[in-house]
Design a protein that fits this description.
The structure holds 2 protein chains of 2 kinds. By secondary structure, chain A is mainly α. Chain A has one domain (about 1-340). Helices cover about 75% and strands about 5% of the residues of chain A. Chain A contains 12 helices and 4 strands. Chain A has helices spanning about 20-35, 40-50, 55-80, 85-110, 120-145, 145-160, 185-200, 205-220, 220-245, 250-275, 280-300, 305-340; strands at about 5-10, 15, 175, 180-185. Chain A has a two-stranded antiparallel ribbon with strand order 1-2. In chain A, helix 1 (about 20-35) crosses helix 3. The N and C termini of chain A lie far apart (about 50 Å). In chain B, helix 2 packs across helix 3. Chain B starts with a helix and ends in a 12-residue tail after the last helix. By secondary structure, chain B is mostly helical. The chains are: A mainly alpha, B mainly alpha. At the A-B interface, helix 3, helix 4, helix 7, helix 9 and helix 10 of A face helix 1, helix 2 and helix 3 of B.
């Protein structure tokens, strides 16, 4: 019955279900708008499950990420969640870092191990797992201890203790008014070089690394970290769209269908940021990346189909949670407005 | 003296990225630059995409990038209006954790 939604993809030269493309785009759009990530780590396995030609998966995905990021960044900007100055610095630092990461991969690719594989494959997969699990567990720990830290901070303020001075304040210092932070130029460049390095090393867009880095290493409020990260994703997506287009691996029809779903999803994801508190975003993000880490672990164990289903199941569940929270928040706000009116 | 060491450290840190360009190309990806797709039996839109793909990849990349940007912008504008109608409009929010 679903065959009626099949469309011909002129570049990939095959038929594919448009409904699946719109649905995948929608789910990743919600996640992207809400977490500030591109979502390539969800899209590629999801497309894989449904038999999309893999040669075109990355290029098509990046093309739709570009369009989606425009939608999400514009909306985040309206909400005051984009620190443009910080975003521009993040692009500069990341570009240098990505290049360095790619060079390390090239070096590892020259080292052959058993089975004809190079050292790059397992090193990347294990690093990916360590990063996803480590980051996820740290964010869960951070969430679990937030009340304790808030109480300690309040107690320190009551007895008149000064806030601890930042240990690393090598000049020149930079001020980011939108985020309300003053920080060493070297911290900013170091953090973005590092996140860019990981991005180039792991071969991913890097949104899921940059977003927590903006929170924990730079000190941004969560919503600004999400919006600013999307601003960087926009540029990475534009470059990806262009360069993969030149290589001839973007199926533009598939990308448009995905973009339609993603743009609507991104609007929903961004709007949800209004109703879910900063720590709520961090908690959901932590769960999501731990599940993504489990998917990589399954892939390493050779269970490729299970790995793809885990990441897609996680994405769909998270998407449902975000939409439910948005709806609950919207209803609550509406009820409060009506109470105020009476 | 403190300023002097700050300048020295700045110079050192500025030199670090040079390590990034150790030579060699970046990651390898699928490259179908010479590929031609079939154009028979396609509808007008698909024909246009296939023709631009076959004739010039630079033009194709330009078309893809512009279309993605434009479609994203149009959908953002339309869904914004729809969300406004149902009362889910967003403006500047307070940043609290």
């Amino acid at each position: 019955m679903l065959d009626m939604f099949n469309v011909y993809l002129p570049i990939a030269e095959q038929n594919f279900n448009a409904l699946i493309l719109v649905a995948i785009g929608f789910a990743v759009g919600v996640l992207g708008g809400f977490f500030g990530v591109g979502g390539a780590w969800v899209v590629t396995p999801a497309l894989n499950i449904f038999g999309f030609p893999m040669a075109y998966a990355i290029g098509t995905d990046l093309a739709h990420i570009f369009g989606k990021s425009i939608v999400a960044t514009a909306k985040h900007r309206k909400m005051g969640n984009v620190d443009m100055k910080l975003g521009i610095w993040s692009i500069i630092g990341s570009v240098i870092g990505v290049e360095a990461g790619a060079q390390v991969i090239m070096w590892l690719s020259k080292m052959k191990i058993s089975g004809g594989e190079t050292l790059a494959g397992p090193v990347v997969r294990y690093s990916y797992m360590v990063l996803l699990f480590g980051l996820g567990i740290y964010m869960l720990y951070d969430y679990a201890t937030k009340d304790k830290r808030a109480a300690a901070k309040a107690a320190a303020a009551t007895v008149g203790m000064a806030a601890p001075k930042k240990a690393w304040n090598l000049p020149p210092l930079m001020h980011f008014p939108a985020s309300g932070i003053t920080i060493s130029f070297w911290t900013v460049m170091g953090v973005f070089f590092f996140t860019g390095f990981l991005s180039g090393f792991l071969g991913v867009g890097g949104g899921f690394i940059r977003m927590p880095a903006l929170i924990y290493l730079i000190g941004c409020p969560t919503a600004i970290a999400v919006g600013t990260d999307l601003f960087s994703v926009l540029f990475a997506g534009a470059y990806g769209c262009w360069t993969y287009g030149m290589k001839g691996v973007v199926d533009i029809v598939a990308a448009i269908y995905m973009l339609v779903g993603a743009s609507i999803g991104a609007q929903i994801g961004v709007t949800a940021v209004k109703y879910i508190r900063g720590y709520g975003i961090r908690l959901l993000f932590a769960i999501m990346i731990i599940l993504a880490g489990s998917s990589v672990a399954l892939k390493q164990a050779g269970l490729n189909t299970a790995a793809a289903w885990v990441v897609m199941g996680a994405a769909l569940s998270m998407c449902a949670i975000i939409m439910a929270k948005l709806w609950a928040g919207f209803k609550k706000e509406k009820a409060e407005k009506m109470m105020m009116a009476h | 003296m403190k300023k002097f060491w700050a300048v020295i450290l700045n110079c050192f840190l500025l030199a670090l990225p040079a390590l990034a360009w150790a030579a060699g190309p970046g990651e390898k990806t699928a490259d179908f630059a010479a590929k031609q797709v079939k154009m028979e039996g396609l509808n007008a839109i698909n024909y246009f995409f296939a023709a631009s793909y076959n004739s010039n990849k630079l033009m194709f990349a330009f078309i893809v990038t512009v279309i993605m940007g434009a479609v994203g912008g149009i959908i953002a504008f339309v869904t914004d209006i729809i969300l406004k109608i149902i009362g889910m409009d967003v403006s500047k929010i307070e940043h609290h954790e």
